[in-house]
TrEMBL record:
It is a single-pass membrane protein. It comes from Arthrobacter saudimassiliensis. HAMAP family: TatA_E. Residues 45-87 are annotated as: Disordered. This is Sec-independent protein translocase protein TatA. The keyword Protein transport applies. Keywords: Cell membrane, Membrane, Protein transport, Translocation, Transmembrane, Transmembrane helix, Transport. One of its GO terms (cellular component) is TAT protein transport complex. It holds the Pfam family TatA_B_E.
Amino acid sequence: MRLEGWQIIIVIVLAVLLFGAPKLPGLARSVGQSLRIFKSEVRQLKDENNGPAPQAAPGGPAPQPAPLSPGSPAGESAPGEHRHQEP
């Protein structure tokens, strides 16, 4: 469906009648800014999806968990560590 010349003129006349002539430049400016922001966000999302796969952090293997202190019972979990016990 293509817009022809007479259809565009009708749309412009309706816009002038609905919004008034003084408000149209501000409305057009606002729509332009919104489209610019939308396009930049879409471009940014495409760049993130097409970027290289994330790799492991440089510097070696992941840090090992801290061993339990000798005074703590074996069934007790270290601070910040949650264990699930089965009934």
